[in-house]
Amino acid sequence: MPMTPTSEAPATYRLIDGKQTAEDIKVEIAAEVVQRKAAGQKPPHLAAILVGHDGGSETYVRNKVLACERVGFESTLLRYEDTITEAELLAKVDELNQDEQIDGFIVQLPLPKHIDPNKVIEAIRPEKDVDGFHPMNIGRMVAGLPALLPATPSGIVELLRRYELVTDGKHCVVIGRSNIVGTPVSILLAKNLEPGNCTVTLCHSRTQNLAEITRTADILVAAIGRPGFVTADMVSPGAVVIDVGTTRVEDATKKAGWALRGDVSFEDVAPKASYITPVPGGVGPMTIAMLLLNTLRAAKGEIYPR
């Protein structure tokens, strides 16, 4: 389906099903784990450190543990109260760095305000940094070298690949410049890769005339963390819309009292899009799938020979 904006909205749009795509990736990973075990190799081992009791983090980490079970990984979850000191957390990171049974690990963000997340990220050995946040992995990504890539951006690229969406020469507008999503996805899509070769515009809170810019996008990636921010008037007919937002908002109709909302006003924008990711069920499941893939690559020594 053409991705160049047209003067008329498409008759229909197609959902980009991140949930099913993530499941396909897990099946592929599980098959490789079976092969590793048959060859006498240990299954990959992913560890996670969770500090405090943030609701979103609790859900995300729980889903990671379940995903590990699904693909045959070993997993370890280390929980700490938000009173843990920065020194104590860094000591635990060093312990995991030295543990030869752990192939990769994450420290779930956000962290309490008294802990510097950059210190923690930099303390993780690059070869075990399966979140892909370490400066070494980011630098290798920028240089076009093999790296453990940030999970959410690489998940977005993988969705574009598996849906066979043409990116070469297209204009991609990214809203949000975080180190976790916006900046790395803008770099990946600008690279001479497939998918890639986009002309990328990176927008943020200080961007002027934002709607004028977003209306020029063949591919629009919304990663700003503001529910319903992207409205129909900001999207050109026929655009591919990738919604990274996952914000909890109050919803009395839900049993939990809340619902996940994306950065895109789905009901308004979907009729104008050619392809669009839903929330939930779009980018979110891909993040965990790519984390598992990074853990498998770490276990194999694919990026950093062991």
Automatic annotation (TrEMBL):
The keyword Amino-acid biosynthesis applies. It comes from the Bacteria. Gene3D superfamilies: Leucine Dehydrogenase, chain A, domain 1, NAD(P)-binding Rossmann-like Domain. Residues 150-300 form the Tetrahydrofolate dehydrogenase/cyclohydrolase NAD(P)-binding domain. NADP(+) binds at residues 176-178, 246. Its EC number is 1.5.1.5, 3.5.4.9. One of its GO terms (molecular function) is methenyltetrahydrofolate cyclohydrolase activity. GO terms for cellular component: cytosol. It holds the Pfam family THF_DHG_CYH_C. The keyword Secreted does not apply. Keywords: Amino-acid biosynthesis, Histidine biosynthesis, Hydrolase, Methionine biosynthesis, Multifunctional enzyme, NADP, One-carbon metabolism, Oxidoreductase, Purine biosynthesis. Residues 16-131 form the Tetrahydrofolate dehydrogenase/cyclohydrolase catalytic domain. GO terms for biological process: L-histidine biosynthetic process; methionine biosynthetic process; purine nucleotide biosynthetic process; tetrahydrofolate interconversion. Pathway: One-carbon metabolism; tetrahydrofolate interconversion. InterPro entries: Aminoacid_DH-like_N_sf, NAD(P)-bd_dom_sf, THF_DH/CycHdrlase, THF_DH/CycHdrlase_cat_dom, THF_DH/CycHdrlase_CS, THF_DH/CycHdrlase_NAD-bd_dom. It catalyses: (6R)-5,10-methylene-5,6,7,8-tetrahydrofolate + NADP(+) = (6R)-5,10-methenyltetrahydrofolate + NADPH; (6R)-5,10-methenyltetrahydrofolate + H2O = (6R)-10-formyltetrahydrofolate + H(+). HAMAP family: THF_DHG_CYH. PANTHER family: C-1-TETRAHYDROFOLATE SYNTHASE, CYTOPLASMIC (PTHR48099:SF5), C-1-TETRAHYDROFOLATE SYNTHASE, CYTOPLASMIC-RELATED (PTHR48099). Belongs to the tetrahydrofolate dehydrogenase/cyclohydrolase family. Homodimer. Catalyzes the oxidation of 5,10-methylenetetrahydrofolate to 5,10-methenyltetrahydrofolate and then the hydrolysis of 5,10-methenyltetrahydrofolate to 10-formyltetrahydrofolate. This is Bifunctional protein FolD. The lineage of its organism: Bacteria, Pseudomonadati, Bacteroidota, Cytophagia, Cytophagales.
